[in-house]
């Protein structure tokens, strides 16, 4: 007879067969926490814990009408998935991208719940966004869209209820427009969004935080396996804020990033993306909205490989920083064939399940995104704290707190895996450590 975990997972597969991204995340999480559930199966099942854990507390969907520069009314679909508030207000980004749908946002919200738990900060999990594409739009069109989106969303968020942030397609410009409209509608100045500009409540090093945190996690991981970041070569995908922060910190700590990528292909810089001019050019590329990594190759005279991914390059550490499911089984085979020992997920769920299994079967150490990329939301949590105190910490103070949080995440993941007989399995460890805190809180609060 199937156990409690398997029964809940099978029910999800039937009920949400049309939501592949959500099922992918749910499968990974539930199978990794199975050992915890088996130790507590009777009390968890009696409390319906897993059935509540896998379902969002609330999903809000709405239309977003806005007027383009030609005076034509456009309509997009907006969402907010408020997944779990057992340990704090919902917290998670807003994504603006044509691919946004309920399945993707549910997977992101589910992952966010465990990620936020791992930080040790009092934050629940949520995610939202719209199928709006800011690329190619004027500032005024983006502003009108953001104002229309917030005119509906503001009813459901607040500093002690739900605190959104940025994500793909949502940078400083979009956060500013969202915040301005929220302030106008609520007539209050609160820390309801994170990733704000420095002049109106933002935190220092927030733009760099996800990349910085990923590298701090990598440093701890390397220590555990008797290794060091100095002299290591890195393959990085993407060229947005996350890749930028990663390049900055890897360079500072003595490593060398040799690739970045975009929808058009990847570049290989044998000397490394390791000077202020090169690293900051990533920001120029992103701000141009051209979405072409070939611009880097043209500017710095390095090879460009159109239509290809950077995973064919021989490096010590692979760090996908772009989007979900960018690394498939064939990519995993390339990475293994190149002798890459460490695979560090920086973007959310960048690896298909069969690729993860291939890595594990072939001795590659896999660091999971929910732990690796928690630095972004950790500094968002620190921004919330600063807003609540009406105070700002220095960059050094924020960075020191971020380093401690990432060190704590790695240690908690390592210890949890060891406790449940899976020593060295960082994926299982992160899922277990994140789940235990949420589960304890849910059990204490009753059937809600």
What does this protein structure show overall?
By secondary structure, this protein is α/β, with parallel strands linked by helices. It folds into three domains: 1-54, no CATH class; 56-190, Rossmann fold (3-Layer(aba) Sandwich), CATH 3.40.50.10860; 209-372, NAD(P)-binding Rossmann-like Domain (Rossmann fold, 3-Layer(aba) Sandwich), CATH 3.40.50.720. It has helices at 4-15, 20-32, 34-39, 41-46, 49-54, 102-119, 139-153, 172-186, 209-224, 241-252, 276-288, 294-300, 329-337, 353-361, 369-372, 374-389, 395-419, 426-445; strands at residues 58-67, 73-84, 90-96, 125-130, 162-165, 233-236, 256-262, 265-268, 304-306, 317-319, 342-344, 365-367. The strands form two sheets. A seven-stranded mixed beta sheet has the order 9-8-7-6-10-11-12, with helices on both faces. It has a five-stranded mixed beta sheet with strand order 1-2-4-3-5. Strand 1 (58-67) and strand 2 (73-84) form a beta hairpin. Helix 9 packs across helix 10. It is globular. The model has no long low-confidence stretch (mean pLDDT 96).
